[in-house]
Amino acid sequence: AQRVTQPEKLLSVFKGAPVELKCNYSYSGSPELFWYVQYSRQRLQLLLRHISRESIKGFTADLNKGETSFHLKKPFAQEEDSAMYYCALSDGGTSYGKLTFGQGTILTVHP
Amino acid sequence: GAGVSQTPSNKVTEKGKYVELRCDPISGHTALYWYRQSLGQGPEFLIYFQGTGAADDSGLPNDRFFAVRPEGSVSTLKIQRTERGDSAVYLCASSPQTAGVLAGIYNEQFFGPGTRLTVL
């Protein structure tokens, strides 16, 4: 069965510091990985996806198949990055993208 | 344009009662998903619709849960004989699902604001 683990429920950093939100997964097939974000009083939204290899709002994430990880990184955190972050996995072999989410990490960026 | 909407935003009910939760997807989105988010957890998949049919209902916890999407747009999640353990935020998401076999990879899921269900 597929599983996504985010080991940190809470993460606090100061503005301008680097930040890394950890995500590990277990899946026997060919997974696709995503990061979703939920800002205060807003709905869950896609931040970035592995397949696009994009940088959104300064965030990047690299899929490491050897370590089965998809950590989210940003070199200089901003206060507006404070939010709940979810790592999610989709079965790359299906056609409908059912998502399995981790438990989430609350990121707080202090001024 | 309008995003995914869900009604009601909050629902309080008593144990044993029947509830219906509604989801209005983005117009033209053929794929619709329901997730359940318990306190302190990430969303958990319940059911997926492609058009009018439930293509995958493997996440429904038991037969008290049922969902429909009769015209391929609005969906209703129905819970019979509610239990205190059903208390959670129920999320709906829709997706354009236009990329065929790679849709699951490329198509973004757009989430609604959720319905917070409390069973007393």
Short recap of the structure:
The complex is a heterodimer of chains A (111) and B (120). With 111 residues, chain A is mainly β.
How many H/I helical runs of chain A? 0
Radius of gyration of chain A: 14 Å
Number of strands of chain A: 11
> How many structural domains in the coordinates of chain A?
1
Portion of residues in helices of chain A? under 10%
Q: Estimate nothing, just give the exact number of structural domains of chain B.
A: 1
Could you tell me how far the N terminus lies from the C terminus of chain A, measured between alpha carbons in angstroms? 41 Å
| Beta-strand percentage range of chain A | over 45%
What is the beta-strand fraction of chain B? over 45%
Structural shape of chain B: globular
Rg of chain B, Cα atoms, Å: 14 Å
Based on the structure given, which CATH architecture of chain A is correct?
A: Sandwich
Most strands sheet of chain B: 7 strands, mixed
The appropriate CATH architecture of chain B is Sandwich
Unreliable parts of chain A: none
Q: How does the overall form of chain A come out from the CA principal axes? A: globular
> Can you give the mean pLDDT of chain A?
91
SSE arrangement:
The complex is a heterodimer of chains A (111) and B (120).
Chain A: E1 3-5, E2 10-14, E3 19-21, E4 24-26, E5 31-38, E6 45-49, E7 60-61, E8 72-74, E9 83-91, E10 99-101, E11 105-110
Parallel strand pairs in A: 2-11
Antiparallel strand pairs in A: 1-4, 3-8, 5-6, 5-9, 7-8, 9-10, 9-11
Chain B: E1 5-7, E2 10-13, E3 19-24, E4 31-37, E5 44-50, E6 53-56, E7 65-68, E8 75-79, E9 88-95, H1 103-106, E10 110-111, E11 115-119
Parallel strand pairs in B: 2-11
Antiparallel strand pairs in B: 1-3, 3-8, 4-5, 4-9, 5-6, 7-8, 9-10, 9-11
Commentary on this structure:
The complex is a heterodimer of chains A (111) and B (120). Chain A is mainly beta and 111 residues long. Chain A has one domain (3-110): Immunoglobulin-like, CATH 2.60.40. Chain A contains no helices and eleven strands. Chain A has strands at residues 3-5, 10-14, 19-21, 24-26, 31-38, 45-49, 60-61, 72-74, 83-91, 99-101, 105-110. In chain A, strands 2, 5, 6, 9, 10 and 11 form a six-stranded mixed sheet that branches. The model of chain A has no long low-confidence stretch (mean pLDDT 91). The model of chain B has no long low-confidence stretch (mean pLDDT 91). Chain B is mainly beta and 120 residues long. Chain B has one helix at residues 103-106, and strands at residues 5-7, 10-13, 19-24, 31-37, 44-50, 53-56, 65-68, 75-79, 88-95, 110-111, 115-119. In chain B, the strands form two sheets. In chain B, strands 2, 4, 5, 6, 9, 10 and 11 form a seven-stranded mixed sheet that branches. Chain B has a four-stranded antiparallel sheet with strand order 1-3-8-7, with no helix packed on it. In chain B, β7 (65-68) and β8 form a beta hairpin. Chain B contains one helix and eleven strands. In chain B, 3% of the residues lie in helices and 46% in strands. Chain A binds chain B through residues 4, 6, 9, 32, 43-46, 49, 51, 86, 88, 90-92, 94-104, and chain B through 3-4, 31, 33, 35, 40-45, 48, 50, 55-56, 91, 93, 95, 97, 100-114.
